[in-house]
Design goal:
heterotrimer, A alpha/beta (429), B mainly alpha (314), C mainly alpha (302), A: 429 residues, alpha/beta, six-stranded mixed beta sheet, 17 helices, 42% helix, C: 302 residues, mainly alpha
């Protein structure tokens, strides 16, 4: 036993000694840090673009790190609070209000003007998504709208006509009813007509909005009859017509469902092109794309985008800006579009890079969709929080325990109470 | 017994040193933060004294009715406490499993390993699988599918049977029980079972032999020997489970229910997280943390009074 | 030895039946994870058996990220923390459970109390602390060593201390209130007879700790080692906040990169989980044989 211990001790010393010889020390240097995130393919692409920049500018020192997207805001804000954050960071547009409201991001308006970036070429909503209270804090690298996928085989099998380019909510409901099917006649639905996505598209297309401005501040707009009609339509899909599979609540973006488009259990899937990298592997049925159906107030849909931002306290803002220009340039956004998940934010690149001839489905739909009324949620720090409470109140209607009027009245109250509290805190909103 | 202060210092020093630097210091800073309006990464914090605590806990009288200044806190606290009902259930299951697996049976190692597996799996996998098992539609969700067949055997069919199916994750009344089932499943074979197994090894066999001679049956041995002898272990599991329970529920809510329906599965820990990193109100988040801390502390003190001190004298 | 009665045989059968049933229940998610890791993401919800088998998820995980490095980091960090934490906790637990000194219960309660504070908010002062440590050390030693970069060969191995260093990943984990509490509780349940005999025989406090208490505490030390190892193998938030370079990341942080913001590739996540799980199962099978073996009962009898 003693010998074993002696031997172990000697081995440890030897390893430490030999190991220490290989350890080198370098002084700290001012190196630019870039954080990116995304699917593995996107991460690879960001790396490739960064390497290209490095080849073209061998004297510039920077490092690119891939970080987990879900936790990036927590990591970023903790770092900013302590004065230790990356110079350049990728952010999703729904993370923007949180980060830019701290005042820690570098406004880009001057730089954009100075370097003659063609802002007219960008879809306006893309720049709006990266603006906060009138200032531009980032440039998008990709972005798209909520549209539709439909299962052609199911449509063919049950003799339902494909969605036309100007189809409406009524047609959506009618098709969904025909495609909600109990295949084996056991009293249970095996296929549901549609998966309607988030409620926002319906509220907007119905002619309503969640909040309105009154005397220079936001108040709840949930008492608007057009909002009630839209919510009623949405809830009826689940409860009255039962053409959509039951789910835990309105805010379940990330939760898992067993009734999926992929499984052939949903005929019309309302979602965005970010599903394509996965749907392209579907081999059990043919599918195609369609625009979001028109509501009483026309076709309105929602934008989602990812972009680059710069930290205000970066020691090398010029290098950071130069790098960002490279990462969101037309070459990079075109390469990004080739992955098939999202469209380039620049009009000039969008169609050329995103629409492909070698796929049986149409990408044209997504490009076209950008020309309709594309909305964003209010770019405010408190929005995500408030939206959560709003949707929690509406859950009662979704489950059929309350009428839409009752649930909306409660959500209206909640929203106004919430906003009153926010304004009472006296923040510069 | 003589005082052993010097020896104690030497024994405690390594742990205490690291503990003071890496934990106690930051804890005190966090306690200080609860007295400030402190917005993460935004400007300088301003001192508000106990203002945060008032905003969190105070009730105002509005038109003769008492209204909480922060009603969400109370709702989420109630959710959290309700979900903690899984603790006694998990502990009972863990004890039973440990007693079963402590016998001389073939394949003990295999059983113990497999029971421990939920603890080795990532939470994501566990919650995703359970989401599928708990799906409402009986042709997809296995549990409701079983109930559906059962109803048919008893002649209940169609709409009547559908009305009797629990809406596990989609009904406010069933969402919490559903999560409790998942929690019990996930924790019964885990750390608690291992701890009980380790504790069982230390019960002197003489006690059981003596009981055999007195003609005690299995239940009496469990009741009068095993459970009292395991009391320190039980105390430990209870205290750490209560601490963990009051701080838990984030991941399950995130993957299975999104905190719904109607906010019925949102817990305090989720609230702290959103306040700190979504609303950037770190001072307020620190306040919630301190209140939660006080709650746990009181719970532990009560445990200590009625469980801990009795153990030490015995 | 009495002959096995029919009733005993019946009991044994019932126990086995129950165990096998429970076992099936417990392994469900593991089986699902394993099967899903061989599926295309679009096939995930299509029943249990993959309609098409693919190994793309595994090659995807290994190609996209520096998986080997995350593995090595996790292994190194978790085992170092386990070794040190079990030692410091055992020492402290012995003091709390067996030694008499002033303020014992108060200090112990202070220990317990820190476990009760949710960690989300603690991150902020802890981050600042880690940022400041190298600056303080540099000023103290009048050097710039502590903010420099270390390399092993050409591999980056972080700063000597502070953010993005092995120090930050390991040091705070080495001192745990949980471990101290657990071992203390265990020691309270152990009979003092042998210890008292050892004191009467003239043993020092250290001698009692080393020769009597430690061997007795083997099952609890083993359990704590497993918990500590698993806990650190799976820990996410601390390493996430502390590191920002790819070379310093650990497995759970690496895995988190696989799940996109609003769009999860479950096949990929499952493949990553399986790769993360395999060594855990091996460690568990090997260790649990050792720590719940019952050998130590001899100490009480002898």
């Amino acid at each position: 036993m003693l010998y074993i211990r002696l031997f172990a001790a000697c081995a440890a010393v030897l390893v430490a000694f030999v190991g220490a010889r290989y350890i080198n020390w370098h002084p700290a240097e001012d190196m630019l840090t870039v954080w990116v995130y995304g699917s593995p393919q996107e991460a690879q692409l960001f790396r490739r673009m960064a390497e290209q920049y490095r080849r073209e500018n061998p004297d510039k020192l920077f490092r690119l790190e891939v970080v987990p997207g879900r936790s990036v805001v927590q990591k970023l804000l903790t770092g900013m609070d302590a004065g230790h954050a990356p110079d350049v960071c990728v952010l999703h547009w729904r993370q923007m209000a949180q980060v830019s409201s701290t005042g820690q991001l570098l406004p880009l308006d001057e730089l954009v003007k100075r370097d003659g970036i063609d802002v007219g070429d960008y879809y306006p909503v893309g720049l709006e998504a990266y603006s906060y209270h009138g200032k531009l804090y980032g440039l998008p690298v990709k972005g798209s709208t909520v549209t539709c996928f439909y299962n052609k085989d199911l449509f063919d099998q049950y003799g339902v006509e494909y969605p036309s380019p100007d189809w409406t909510w009524d047609e959506l409901l009618e098709k969904a009813k025909k495609l909600t099917i109990d295949v084996d006649q056991d009293g249970l639905y095996d296929v549901y007509g549609c998966s309607p996505y988030d409620i926002a598209n319906y509220v907007w297309s119905g002619g309503g909005k969640f909040l309105r401005m009154e005397d220079g501040r936001y108040v709840s707009n949930l008492d608007d009859p057009s909002v009630r009609d839209a919510v009623q339509f949405y809830v009826d899909l689940y409860f009255k017509h039962q053409v959509s599979p039951p789910r835990p609540g309105m805010r379940t973006d990330a939760t898992m469902s067993t009734f999926t488009f992929e499984a052939g259990r949903i005929a019309i899937d309302i979602s965005g092109p970010w599903r394509i990298p996965q749907y392209q592997y579907l081999d059990r049925f043919e599918w195609d794309t369609a625009l979001f159906p028109k509501g009483p107030d026309g076709r309105k849909t929602r934008y989602a985008s990812v972009g680059f931002t710069i930290w205000k306290n970066s020691k090398q803002p010029e290098l950071a800006w130069d790098l960002v220009k490279h990462m969101v340039g037309s070459q990079a956004t075109a390469a990004m579009a080739q992955l098939g998940s999202d469209m380039p934010p620049q009009r000039s690149v969008a169609r050329r890079a995103f629409v492909r001839d070698d796929t049986p489905w149409s990408e044209e739909t997504f490009v076209e969709s950008m020309e309709y009324d594309v909305h964003l949620f209010p770019q405010e720090l408190w929005w995500e929080d408030l939206y959560r409470f709003m949707l929690d109140d509406l859950d009662a209607a979704l489950a059929g325990r309350e009428s839409v009027e009752e649930a909306l009245a409660r959500a209206h109250q909640t929203t106004n109470d919430y906003l009153d509290r926010i304004y009472a805190q006296g923040d510069d909103l | 017994m003589k005082r052993q202060g010097r020896a104690a210092v030497l024994f405690l020093l390594p742990n205490l040193l690291g503990f003071v630097i890496f934990t106690l210091g930051p804890v005190l800073v966090a306690a200080g933060m609860s007295l400030y309006r402190y917005q993460l990464a935004t400007g300088t914090p301003s001192f508000v004294g106990l203002g945060n605590f008032a905003d969190l806990l105070w009730f105002d009288s509005v038109d003769g009715a008492w209204q909480a200044r922060d009603p969400y806190f109370w709702q989420y606290l109630a959710n959290t406490l309700f979900l903690m009902l899984n603790i006694p259930l998990s502990m009972t299951c863990a004890l039973l499993l440990a007693v079963l697996l402590n016998r001389e049976i073939r394949g003990r190692v295999v059983f113990r390993t497999l029971f421990f597996i939920p603890h080795l799996c990532s939470g994501i996998a566990i919650y995703m699988v359970w989401t599928m098992l708990l799906t409402y539609e009986p042709n997809v969700g296995i549990i409701n599918g079983f109930l559906w067949k059962l109803y048919h055997i008893f002649g209940v069919t169609g709409a009547d049977a559908a009305a009797l199916l629990p809406g596990w994750l989609i009904d406010e009344r069933w969402a919490k029980p559903a999560l409790i089932i998942v929690f019990v499943w996930a924790s019964a074979g885990g750390f608690s079972m291992i701890l009980y197994l380790a504790g069982l090894q230390n019960i002197p066999p003489e006690l059981y032999e003596a009981a055999d001679i007195d003609g005690a049956n299995g239940w009496m041995k469990l009741r009068y020997i095993t459970i009292p002898q395991l009391a320190p272990t039980t105390f430990f599991i209870l205290v750490t489970s209560v601490i963990g329970g009051l701080q838990g529920g984030f991941e399950a809510a995130y993957i299975m229910t999104g905190g719904g329906p109607g906010g019925s599965t949102t817990t305090i820990s989720y609230y702290i997280y959103t306040q700190a990193y979504q609303q950037l109100e770190v001072g307020y988040a620190a306040t919630i943390s301190m209140v939660l801390f006080a709650l746990i502390f009181v719970a532990t003190l009560i445990n200590w009074r009625y469980g801990g001190s009795r153990l030490e004298t015995s | 030895m009495s002959p096995v009665s029919a009733q005993q045989r019946w009991q044994m059968g019932a126990i086995y039946g129950a165990l096998v049933l429970l076992m099936c229940l417990m392994t469900v998610p593991l089986v699902w994870t394993l099967l899903t890791s061989f599926k295309y993401n679009v096939d995930v919800t299509l029943g249990w058996i993959p309609p098409r088998w693919t190994s793309d998820n595994y090659t995807g995980v290994v190609e996209a990220f520096a998986f080997a490095r995350y593995y090595a980091n996790s292994l190194f960090i978790a085992s170092t923390i386990t070794a040190v934490q079990v030692s410091t906790s055992a020492l402290a637990a012995f003091a709390f459970a067996r030694l008499q000194f002033r303020g014992r219960d108060v200090i112990f309660l202070g220990y317990l109390a820190t476990m009760m504070i949710p960690s989300d908010v603690l991150m902020i002062p802890q981050f600042v602390l880690m940022k400041k440590i190298p600056l303080w050390l540099n000023a103290f030693g009048d050097t710039n060593f502590f903010s420099g970069f270390l390399y092993f060969g050409s591999q980056y191995i972080g700063h000597p201390v502070g953010l993005d260093s092995y120090f930050a990943l390991i040091a705070p984990g080495c001192f745990s209130a949980y471990g101290t509490f657990m071992l203390r509780q265990f020691l309270l349940g152990v009979s003092r007879e042998i210890e008292e005999a050892a004191y009467i025989d003239g043993c020092s406090t250290w001698g009692v700790f080393w020769h009597v208490v430690l061997p007795l505490a083997k099952p609890a030390l083993g359990a704590l080692a497993i918990f500590t190892f698993l806990g650190n193998w799976r820990s996410f938030v601390w390493p996430l906040i502390m590191t920002d370079s790819d070379s310093m990341m650990v497995l759970p942080v690496g895995l988190a990169k696989l799940s996109d913001l609003y769009n999860n590739d479950y096949g990929l996540i499952c493949a990553g989980s399986v790769l993360m799980l395999i060594p855990m199962i091996i460690v568990f099978v090997l260790c649990q044989r050792w720590f719940i073996s019952g050998i130590q009962l001899g100490a009480v009898k002898g």
